[in-house]
Amino acid sequence: MSAASENGMDEGLHDQSSYRWPIPPAEGWTADDLDRIPGLPPHTELIDGSLVFMSPQTRFHMRCMRLLEHSLLDQVPDHLDVDREFTIKLDRRNRPEPDILVVPVKADLGPDQTWRKPEDVLLAVEVVSPDSCERDREVKPRKYAEAGVPHFWRVEKDEDKGLPVVYVYELDPATKSYGLTGIFHDRLKVTIPFEIEIDLTAVDRRRGGSEPA
């Protein structure tokens, strides 16, 4: 993702007269504005009152999200559900969009719902992209922790193997910060917040067991 400039317009897009980029108010955008600003690119986030736009997705990022989404859907307890690329309204000026969320089924407010409350999020997952390293490693997990999201996974690419590496964090409620509880290569296996096991080497495997040629 790449952040929008302060005047709401990327400098490289000035020549595109067909679209009028939104100009932010003096105090910045609010979380509710994401549902009202016309023509925003898909998966736009709000961080500290500034719009953050999605860059083209890498193959690794897409396949990691697919593996995690399918694995979690297959294994989460019946009272939990899985969202993909769905925003959390942390506060008035922050509405990030984790790659994967695990939430209680009872938190579903219907088909027109566009965001989750932080108290309804059990697990947030970010797959790190080259242009969002700082946000995925520092900014967003800090905000999730401060908002009380109890579990956070950060997924990075092992540059030698090309496979996902999952860093698992748990919230310390006394300090409102995350503590690292494990780093998982090849296979993720945890019992908290629920029992789950994921074969990370299957990131390129299609459902049914075959790998692409």
From TrEMBL:
Going by the UniProt record, its keywords in alphabetical order are: Endonuclease, Hydrolase, Nuclease
- Nuclease is among the record's keywords: yes
Q: Does the keyword Nuclease apply?
A: yes
Q: Where is this region: Disordered?
A: 1-20
Domain Putative restriction endonuclease residue range list? 32-193
**Which Pfam family, any one of them, does this sequence belong to?**
Uma2
Gene3D superfamilies tied to this protein: tt1808, chain A
InterPro entries in the record: Nuclease_put_TT1808, Restrct_endonuc-II-like, Uma2
**One GO MF term attached to the UniProt entry:** endonuclease activity
Q: What is this protein called?
A: Uma2 family endonuclease
